[in-house]
Amino acid sequence: MSDENLVGIVLVSHSAAVAASVAELAQGLSGAGASVPVAPAGGTDGGELGTSAELIAAAAASVDRGAGVAVLTDLGSAVLTVKALLAEGDELPENTQLVDAPFLEGAVAAVVTASTGADLAAVATAASEAYGYRKV
């Protein structure tokens, strides 16, 4: 399956290194499925800790293949920045959704599910259900 019909995933963290590492882990754990377009959007434009609307918008545009874009975030201002971009209406690709999910586990679930060709609703549901993953 080509990535042309896959949901794109954007991982927004206050740290560029964290966003990139979570993207690498999620893609690595997705197995033999299709290569899901995943883009980290971490830190500020200047490389500091924080969030950048410009980096988030660029990441979303880079993974958009027309099947939707799922955005997962780490902490408060990342959520607020994505919500502001969604409210503006023209900064993110059409059919972009902020997903309420744990950052790491949700990213893995989203990428694995997207690699099967699932639609945006299924990807978002899988990521959200990661809140229920038990470790003991």
TrEMBL record:
Pfam families (UniProt xref): EIIA-man (PF03610)
This protein's record includes keyword Transferase: yes
Keyword annotations: Transferase
Signal sequence annotation: none
InterPro entries in the record: DhaM, PTS_EIIA_man-typ, PTS_EIIA_man-typ_sf
Gene3D superfamilies: Phosphotransferase system, mannose-type IIA component
Lineage top rank: taxon: Bacteria
Domain PTS EIIA type-4: 6-136
Record PANTHER family: PEP-DEPENDENT DIHYDROXYACETONE KINASE, PHOSPHORYL DONOR SUBUNIT DHAM (PTHR38594)
This protein's name: PTS fructose transporter subunit IIA
Organism: Streptomyces althioticus subsp. attaecolombicae
